[in-house]
Write a structure and sequence with these properties.
- By secondary structure, this protein is α/β, with parallel strands linked by helices.
- The chain has four domains: about 55 residues, N-terminal domain of TfIIb; about 220 residues, Rossmann fold; about 190 residues, Dimethylsulfoxide Reductase, domain 2 (3-Layer(aba) Sandwich), CATH 3.40.228.10; about 120 residues, Beta Barrel (Barwin-like endoglucanases), CATH 2.40.40.20.
- It is about 30% helix and about 15% strand.
- It is built from 25 helices and 30 strands.
- The strands form eight sheets. Strands 7-6-20-19-18-8-9 form a seven-stranded mixed sheet, with helices on both faces.
- Helix 6 crosses helix 16, helix 10 packs parallel to helix 16 and helix 19 crosses helix 21.
- The N terminus is likely disordered.
- The structure holds iron/sulfur cluster.
- Iron/sulfur cluster (SF4) binds next to helix 3 and helix 8.
- The site of iron/sulfur cluster has 13 residues, from helix 3 and helix 8.
């Protein structure tokens, strides 16, 4: 029993572990390139999950200063075919400025940071890990990573924390973005993994865009849809479900401006109408699904009248939606955070999948449920085990056979991986409040802008005895709560792999030197692992070696990538998985489950019958409006990169609060004036735009502007922490607020 748990044992018997493992010699330090290539380099865009191919052209001498790297779309990348949006096109302008170049430390947060050596940084890290293990056990360690990681970064961080140190407290900002899609796919289909591909956009007859402002958040995909729509006109119907009129709904044949929090009711109401029309693929339902009776009973209760009343839309519009679905040869449903960031996010994802399974709109070209990831490598994170419940290869820490397979692969004794889910990011915040964490390590993300209820997050982080931030950029809001800053090499400075929304894997090569002493995240985690005595587990000299070890763990899994390697991707370009060993380049599968067999115990997909519960914090007398948050096309998350590019601020120089004219009149607000937006958790000030593009009773703010920005407006300060009980994804899309004019 004890032999397999070198550190978890220490929780029970503090002290001796310090002698169980001794630091081992390190392999040669990992370097990033020092020479600039002369030819263009191909990579994947490091912003949204569309994962466009970029061709990066090296700087040219331009007088005294070299120009930045310039980006253009890579015509050879199958996912984007040469297209690129303004963020991807300007990424070269974001790489140099405002970088962290050396480790920095401060013992107390009221002191300034002082530069230190990497040697000193690792001494501090190692000492804090050992101290935390001795005083609090493995549960006192937590890492919060990022969909900006390469797959290799994710893999090594998970191996360090979940394997070597026995703590499953590794979570990532994909928790805020895609965890409802993960749990929805797992519950309905038996495994994570989007079943569709981008080519389906080119053949679908009806595309349902629910909870996604695709035009601004996944612009290259939206342009692909628009281009086809211009060509085929009525042969492609676009239906948008969003409480707000957006650039996406402007192009729609039908826009259902539903009440926030009523997506699941709408889906059940659509199911009701499809049943009434007889749009049921009986052979498919009988052969490939289970649970139809319970679902049809639930759908029976969602009459058009009940659905229209709940969603705040017209019955005629519901009928039109049902007609468009019923009459289409192929229906494709796209969704993103409007669905996922909800207390019923998992149920809503399953609600979408239900409709596709029952109507036979699944597993063939132009048909199926298709989640769009928000981040460039959220998919790779899921594959590498980058959430608190996951292990590499779409495995779970709660499954004993999964733990055993991973422990064997990692060369760790049986029992090294803890059998319980680790702390999600909000669980990490609560653990800091209780004083349970001795080390909170944030990497490549900015939770002091992106988490809900920011005042509470800040107070919790300030109470943590040791906060580490691995970051490429200086001066982020999260640095305010850190003790130790580690300069991270970012995309373009380290080699690694990313997977986009259509399961396509792209090698992102290192083509620029990292500034100063910045190092790749995976190399930082590996060095700490070796210093903690796990030399055999962290032996690599390159990201390619890390990747080889990772893909071997995916053999036989739904996300089988065992045939991929850096060298194959470099030679043959991006590939879709499944890609088992022996697969020829280009022969990965564009779609999953085309044979109607699913990775569940019965081999059938599960129809999930769950009624809607509505918003966690509905409006009331004191807070009568619903605040929803979203994104602008030009900005990326918390603006650490895109905020540096002046032309990306031209269209939206500041955040704007969208208010319906009736609400503006009710609260005495004028167009262009300032307003205070207040929730139960705090208040922010923003400039008002009075517009009929938002439904009455709902207001909108962008989420990008943190307190370090010139026009600070921390929208997430107002949001609550309540989350989907299955995916633990917070309901970042809705909180009750009130408004007041600001003089
Ligand atoms: Fe990058 Fe997304 Fe724009 Fe493509 S659509 S260039 S992946 S930000």
């Amino acid at each position: 029993m004890a032999a397999g748990l070198p550190f978890r044992n220490l929780q029970r018997v503090p002290g001796p572990f310090l002698t169980l493992r001794t630091p081992q010699a390190s392999p040669a330090p990992t370097t990033t390139p020092t020479a600039i290539p002369t030819a263009a380099v191909r990579s994947q865009c490091p912003y949204c999950g569309v994962g466009c191919g970029l061709e990066m052209k090296p700087p040219v001498e331009n007088g005294a200063l070299p120009s930045p790297w310039t980006a253009r779309g890579d015509r050879h990348h199958p996912s984007s075919q040469g297209q690129v949006c303004v963020k991807g096109a300007t990424v070269g302008e974001t790489l140099e400025g405002n970088r962290l170049t050396t480790p920095q430390f401060r013992e107390h947060r009221d002191r300034p940071f002082a530069p230190i050596s990497w040697e000193r940084a690792f001494e501090l890290l190692e000492a804090q890990v050992r101290r935390t293990l001795a005083e609090r056990g493995p549960g006192g360690l937590a890492i919060y990573g990022s969909g900006q990681f390469h797959t290799e970064d994710y893999y090594v961080a998970n191996k360090l924390l979940k394997g070597a140190l026995g703590s499953n407290n590794f979570d990532a900002n994909s928790r805020l973005c895609m965890s409802s899609a993960v749990s929805g796919y797992v519950r309905s289909l038996g495994s994570d993994g989007p079943p569709c591909c981008y080519d389906d956009l080119d053949v679908a007859d009806t595309v349902l865009l629910i909870g996604t402002n695709t035009a601004e958040c996944h612009p290259v995909l939206f342009q692909r849809l628009l281009k086809r729509k211009r060509k085929v006109k009525e042969a492609l119907r676009l239906v948008v479900v969003d409480p707000r009129a957006t650039a996406t709904s402007d192009a729609a044949d039908l826009h259902l401006a539903i009440r926030p929090g009523s997506d699941l009711a709408l889906l059940h109401g659509l199911g009701h109408l499809l049943l009434a029309k007889g749009v049921v693929d009986r052979p498919y339902v009988e052969r490939s699904t289970e649970g139809f009776e319970a679902l049809s009973d639930l759908w029976a209760s969602w009459t058009p009248e009940a659905t229209a009343a709940c969603c705040g839309v017209a019955i005629d519009d519901l009928q039109r939606l049902a007609d468009l679905w019923a009459g289409a040869g192929g229906v494709l449903s796209l969704w993103s955070m409007g669905v996922n960031q909800s207390v019923e996010g998992s149920a809503t994802v399953s609600g979408i999948v239900n409709l596709h399974l029952v109507s036979g709109q699944f597993g063939r070209p132009g048909a199926g449920p298709f989640s769009l990831t928000g981040q460039p490598n959220a998919m790779g994170g899921r594959e590498a085990g980058g959430l608190a419940k996951l292990l590499p290869g779409y495995r779970s820490v709660t499954e004993a056979p999964h733990r055993a397979e991973v422990e064997a692969h990692w060369g760790l004794p049986a029992g090294s991986i803890a059998p319980e889910s680790g702390l999600t990011v909000w669980g990490q915040v609560e653990a800091m409040e209780r004083g349970d964490l001795g080390l909170w390590w944030v990497a490549a993300t900015n939770p002091l802008v992106s988490l809900p209820w920011l005042d509470r997050v800040r107070a919790a982080a300030l109470s943590c005895p040791f906060v580490v931030l691995s970051e490429a950029y200086a001066g982020t809001e999260t640095a305010e709560v850190a003790h130790l800053l580690l300069p991270a090499a970012q995309w373009s400075e380290k080699a690694g792999v990313m997977t986009n929304s259509e399961r396509r894997v792209t090698l992102c090569p290192a083509f620029r030197p990292a500034p100063g002493e910045a190092r790749p995240d995976w190399a930082i985690f590996a060095e700490l692992g070796r210093r903690l005595g796990f030399a055999a587990q962290f032996p690599w000299h390159s990201a390619a070696e890390v990747y080889d070890e990772f893909v071997a763990l995916t053999a036989g899994r739904v996300c089988d990538m065992s045939g991929l390697s850096h060298s194959l991707l470099a030679a043959h370009g991006p590939q879709q998985w499944p890609f088992p060993a022996g697969t020829d380049p280009g022969d990965g599968a564009p779609r999953l489950y085309g044979d109607g067999r699913f990775p569940t115990p019965s081999g059938r997909a599960r129809l999930i019958a769950e009624g809607p519960a509505g918003l966690a914090e509905p409006p009331d007398e004191a807070f009568p409006l619903v605040l929803t948050v979203g994104r602008y096309l030009e900005q990326w998350h918390t603006m650490t990169r895109t905020g540096q590019v002046p032309r990306l601020l031209e269209r939206h120089a500041e955040p704007v609060l969208e208010v319906h004219p009736s609400d503006a009149a009710r609260f005495g607000l004028l167009d262009g004036a300032l307003a205070e937006v207040r929730s139960r958790r705090g208040a922010v000030t923003a400039r008002v735009a009075v517009t009929e593009r938002i439904r009455a009773g709902t207001v909108f703010l962008p989420m990008h502007w943190g307190r370090s920005q010139e026009n600070a407006c921390e929208a997430n300060r107002l949001m609550h922490e309540l989350a989907c009980p299955i995916s633990h994804q917070p309901e970042l899309k809705a909180a009750a607020v009130t408004l007041a004019p600001v003089a």
